[in-house]
Amino acid sequence: MSDPQTLPALLADRARRLRGKAALVALPGAEGPEQVLTYERIEAEATALAAALQQRLPLGGRVVLVLPNEADFVRLFWACVLAGLVAVPVALPRNATALARIDALVRGAGA
Length: 111
Description:
Elements: H1 7-17, E1 22-26, E2 35-38, H2 39-56, E3 62-66, H3 71-83, E4 86-90, H4 96-109
Parallel strand pairs: 3-4
Antiparallel strand pairs: 1-2
Helix pairs in contact: 1-2, 2-3
């Protein structure tokens, strides 16, 4: 078997080969209790989100992800990849200057 050549193929490969294995353990926090995401779960949830994104955005469109480093970020990042979109991850703004930078980044990314 050859190595996956694309990110969607890599996720599908991991979901198949590492069935039931944890890909991410999100510790308790803003999202609630600890979450364990398997590769299969990430692929399934990202696929569902990707279908919704594809109905709203053109192929190659940019999506700015302004999210904390939590399970939702992983789901949405992979949804963008599977939908053929460009994910533009951005750290959460901590002040007005950071918010202005995000605004400039969004305009510059065409998102």
